[in-house]
TrEMBL record:
Top-level EC class as recorded in UniProt: transferase
Protein known as: tRNA (guanine(9)-N(1))-methyltransferase
Biological process, per Gene Ontology: tRNA N1-guanine methylation
Family annotation (PROSITE patterns): SAM_MT_TRM10 (PS51675)
PANTHER family hit by this protein: TRNA (GUANINE-9-) METHYLTRANSFERASE, TRNA METHYLTRANSFERASE 10 HOMOLOG A
GO cellular component annotations of the record: nucleus
Record-level Gene Ontology MF annotations: tRNA (guanosine(9)-N1)-methyltransferase activity; tRNA binding
Disordered: region residues: 154-211
Occurrences of domain SAM-dependent MTase TRM10-type (ranges): 1-156
Record-listed E.C. numbers: 2.1.1.221
Coiled coil spans: none
Protein species of origin: Aegilops tauschii subsp. strangulata (Goatgrass)
Biased composition (Acidic residues): 180-196
Keyword terms: Methyltransferase, S-adenosyl-L-methionine, Transferase
Length: 211
């Protein structure tokens, strides 16, 4: 999912300022295995987001499907956190509780205002990121949702509009991105279901679910 986020961001006309925090322990080990990760143009931080953004904690917004606040727009002064923990089944509500315990704001995407989801409103990290990035580009939530969320998950509301399916394009972006990273290595010798958007003014970040 992190690879998908990086691939999509790299091809965007309005690339986000991405932060990947909590890159320590097993998380750090796993991301280092991604081909070309050392050359990624992304902020990599071993500390948690609370430590990394301690001087602007009031601007942190944890995105969770269980939040009461619904996003109508994206505030470019905010730092939107996409948690890496799958928040469903026995983990239901854990990300909202985490935000409350940490004393930071929480919010959710306005999915229910535009779509009737066939199952849970929990999306993957890369889906949330791409939706927010598409909204920055279009200023239209419905367009963003229909561009990213697969038709099979949209239920009745999405059945009539299956264009701009993201799955094939996303896979193509990822494959091409990773191929380019591998090519760079050759030249120099030396990317389950659950948004830092911004012309370098605000960031979505993905975190590994640990405090």
């Amino acid at each position: 999912q992190i690879m998908y986020c990086y691939a999509v961001n790299g091809r965007s006309a309005t690339p986000a300022h991405l932060w990947l925090t909590g890159c320590s322990g097993e998380m750090g080990t796993q991301v280092q295995r991604i081909p070309g990760f050392d050359k990624w143009i992304i902020e990599k931080e071993a500390k948690s987001y609370l430590e990394a953004f301690a001087d602007c904690k009031e601007n942190l917004v944890y995105l969770t499907a269980d939040a009461e606040t619904v996003l109508d727009d994206l505030d470019m002064s905010k730092i939107y956190i996409i948690g890496g923990l799958v928040d469903r089944n026995r983990w239901k509500g854990i990300t909202q509780k985490k935000a409350v315990d940490q004393g930071i704001q929480s919010a959710k995407l306005p999915i229910g205002n535009y779509l009737k989801m066939s199952s849970s409103q929990v999306l993957t990290v890369n889906q949330v990121f791409e939706i927010m990035q598409k909204f920055v580009e279009t200023k239209d939530w419905k367009t963003a949702f229909f561009h990213v969320i697969p038709p099979r998950k949209r239920g009745e509301a999405g059945a009539a509009n299956d264009d701009d399916s993201p799955e094939g394009a996303a896979n193509g972006d990822l494959d091409k991105c990773l191929e380019e990273e591998v090519d760079d290595d050759d030249d120099d010798g030396d990317g389950d279901e659950e948004a830092d958007v911004a012309n370098k003014r605000h960031c979505f970040r993905s975190e590994n679910g640990k405090s």
